[in-house]
Amino acid sequence: MAEIVRGFRGVVFVGFLMLSKWVDSYEFEDFIFNKTSTGDGAITPTPLLITLTLIQGAAAKGAVCLDGTLPGYHIHAGSGSGANSWLIQLEGGGWCNTVRNCIFRKTTRRGSSKFMEKQIQFTGILSNKAEENPDFFNWNRVKVRYCDGASFTGDSENKDALLQFRGQRIWEAAMAELMSKGMRNAQQALLSGCSAGGLASILHCDEFRTLFPSSTKVKCLSDAGLFMDATDVSGGHALRDVFKGVVSVQGLQKMLPSNCTNKLDPTSCFFPQNLISNIKTPLFLLNAAYDFWQIQSSLAPPVADPHGLWHDCKRNYEKCSASQIQFLQDFRNDMLNAIKGFGVSTQNGLFINSCFAHCQSERQDTWFADDSPLIDNKPVALAVGDWYFDREGVKAIDCAYPCDKTCHNMVSK
């Protein structure tokens, strides 16, 4: 259970972190925030609740979740100056890397629309309030649900296990549906995603661009999607092992970008660090330098730390030893080295803050609030907006821990 005690417009948030394992893989689940009242008894407004829409024509296209059910999305129509602008948010939620945990996953909302919430909150980059989301509040805003287990990338099946690996078809069916609902007339479009959805936004960025005429302003945002092919605390490569399983189980070899697979093995081409230099569409990378999910499940997962030497550190950075902090600084340095070439391009954007966080665009307190995380006195929302609308170039890279006092760091217990 994680606790974040930070103010948001005078409100204290207490978050509960649920780290669940898909049998032998890892998934970072959502945060649930309990809002307490402010000192004067005022209560913050209830966030916008948006109903799930299933894509009725998807089954005929073979565009189905792991269990064969229809995929879905949530949409809130734009208005005024945003009526012809579209923001697409691809949901995240880990991966399944063995047949066994894909079978388990299809009994959850990450593998079946039968278990998806009928309504979800639109906050952060999805908020409809100008004071919470200054640049995109009146756009058409869509959250595409994630139920394929491979970042919307697979196109195969396992008949014996009754598993459908149809992420690519789900992506195509969702885009076709949204185009029919007015997205074809978009003057501006932004493809975004968080975590596994952040990886998906990278994988599908150039494909998204091709949906629109050249006159449409199209860009992509990846939040907490910069998963690193890092060495874990045991000297192994825990996340590479997971990704290798995802690629193998879902047969992604032929689905990954050929400009990468022509040079590297398929597993390497599921890692964003090997993809971003080939993305032609303007792309913004929003990431915590000490990504909380990657520390928990890639750098120091139980399989790499059987004696629990990292148990306290990975749940509360203040309990890390000097050598553990140095290990995390090396991870940050590897991340910064991986984006050097990417950052040279004037069309790309960066916001790499030195926080112990994960997914900062969907949470109101880290997207845009009175005490949001800052780099050079600018919160995430304004940095993304400045970049998208070409108000100024954004290449914001924080100084190393512990310099940033504005972070909303995650602590689990």
Automatic annotation (TrEMBL):
Source organism: Solanum commersonii (Commerson's wild potato)
Protein purpose: Hydrolyzes acetyl esters in homogalacturonan regions of pectin. In type I primary cell wall, galacturonic acid residues of pectin can be acetylated at the O-2 and O-3 positions. Decreasing the degree of acetylation of pectin gels in vitro alters their physical properties.
Pfam family, any one: PAE
Presence of the UniProt keyword Aminoacyl-tRNA synthetase in the record: no
GO CC terms, sorted: plant-type cell wall
Localization per Swiss-Prot or TrEMBL: Secreted, Cell wall
Keywords in alphabetical order: Cell wall, Cell wall biogenesis/degradation, Hydrolase, Secreted, Signal
Protein name (record): Pectin acetylesterase
Gene Ontology BP annotations: cell wall organization
Record GO terms (molecular function): pectin acetylesterase activity
Assigned protein family: Belongs to the pectinacetylesterase family.
Entry EC no(s): 3.1.1.-
Primary site of residence: secreted
